[in-house]
Amino acid sequence: MKILMVCTHPNGGATIAARRQAEALRAEGAHCDLVSLKEDWESTDSSVWVTRDEHEITIHIPASLWSYFGRITLAICNENRTNISNTWFSFFPVETALDKSLLEICHEYDV
């Protein structure tokens, strides 16, 4: 079985925990990889690209593009949240190049 752990950032507490879980699963014989996003502040274009190490996959996103969508999402979510629908999943921005890259990676895994 191929397992993929998905994290927003390549570093931080949640990613450290996911990395430890992935290592524990591999120690038990499972195939487990970790995917995360990395904002690229040096990119001069809007392309999204993927790099792979032994057990880690990084989706590189131009920071200006990612931050732009993040700002739009925050602005729209904050204006449209209600007591009934008080969740980030109530709204998601239009499909991006990130979505396509992440979906292609996810198709390689069972879980």
Explain what the structure shows.
With 111 residues, this protein is of the alpha/beta class. 39% of the residues lie in helices and 23% in strands. It contains 3 helices and 4 strands; from the N terminus they run βαβββαα. Strands 1-2-4-3 form a 4-stranded mixed sheet, with helices on both faces. The N and C termini lie close together (8 Å). 10% of the residues are buried.
Task: Briefly say what this structure is.
By secondary structure, this protein is α/β, with parallel strands linked by helices.
Core attributes:
single chain; 111 residues; alpha/beta; 4-stranded mixed beta sheet; 23% strand
Which structural class matches the secondary elements? alpha/beta
Described by strand count, sense and barrel closure, the largest sheet is: 4 strands, mixed
Radius of gyration equals 16 Å
* Count of discrete alpha- or pi-helical segments spanning 4 or more residues: 3
**Uncertain ranges:** none
- The geometry reads as globular
What proportion of the residues is helical, as a percent range?
A: 25-40%
Instruction: Tally the beta strands.
Output: 4
SSE pattern, N- to C-terminal: EHEEEHH
> How confident is the prediction overall: mean pLDDT?
80
Q: Distance N terminus to C terminus?
A: 8 Å
Percentage beta strand: 15-25%
| Strand line-up of the largest beta sheet | 1-2-4-3
